[in-house]
Amino acid sequence: MKALVxxxxxxxxxxxxxxxxxxxxxxxxxxxxxxxxxxxxxxVIGRSGRVANALRTLLRVxxxxxxxxVTLDVVEP
Length: 77
Prior knowledge:
The chain is of the alpha+beta class. It is built from 3 helices and 3 strands.
């Protein structure tokens, strides 16, 4: 799942070298933190959060197949 988020984020931004995805495990859940360059935040979040929500939906589908819930947070650089 980490690789999926990283791939999609790098495809969206102008500075793919600044994309960082941190994976943390909490009890029965995976937390992914996505960090991008400051000027790319709008591209990753999208208008009204549409891009970020679409990415979360995609992750939910993958997580359902693997049987482990996942949460995606976009954090400020």
